[in-house]
């Protein structure tokens, strides 16, 4: 966005010309002038603003700093304090952006969890969501302590492999689909063919996650049946009626497996 030279001297350009070159509206340039952020270096005989090469460089700096998250007030302070040649303000801004990124990623996970909870229950259970937020504030260390207490040496394996409602990966989506399926057939008998087909899908997926460690699967199920324990581990508690139905359906499934 350089200016042309005439007889070795850079020519001045008008506000409309700068607007086109810099892809910024004349209104924005007038506003920058009004707040003393970017003052034009000259004016035509008719009083129209004109800008030189130095003004254009300053505008480029303003546009870049805006793009990386600085406010106009902060940019003005940097220019006035002549701090633009220091990298400290860029390092500070980078740290700020990283912090914001973490916060946004957490918001994304929380929103994903809300959408998944809606998929499971067909509504947003705000009381339960609030309880989950409260338990999340207890911190990861407490969750790890409880996990080790209930699962012993298998705690790390459980934490690594068990799907999290706030995740958006294919594994989590498959588990949510299975829960949605089982809810859609709760009007049937637990020993019906359709119910048992879904239960087998759940069983097979559990085997993929934890192998044939039936003791661990039973421990998981006992914790899963407790809304309080589920909350303490940061797991979304399942509806009591759904848990009871699953318990009955699994009892049928296991009885049939033992007969074969």
Overview of this protein structure:
This protein has 260 residues and is mostly helical. It has 2 domains: 5-80, Multidrug-efflux Transporter Regulator, Chain: A, Domain 2 (Orthogonal Bundle), CATH 1.10.1660.10; 97-259, no CATH class. The protein has 13 helices and 5 strands. The protein has helices at 15-22, 26-34, 53-67, 72-80, 88-121, 126-136, 140-151, 155-161, 170-184, 193-210, 214-224, 227-232, 240-259; strands at 5-6, 9-10, 13-14, 42-43, 49-51. Strands 3-5-4 form a 3-stranded antiparallel beta sheet. It has a two-stranded antiparallel sheet with strand order 1-2. Helix 7 packs across helix 8 (155-161). The longest helix is centred in the middle third of the chain and has 34 residues, at 88-121. The protein is elongated. One of its GO terms (molecular function) is DNA-binding transcription factor activity. Residues 12-81 form the HTH merR-type domain.
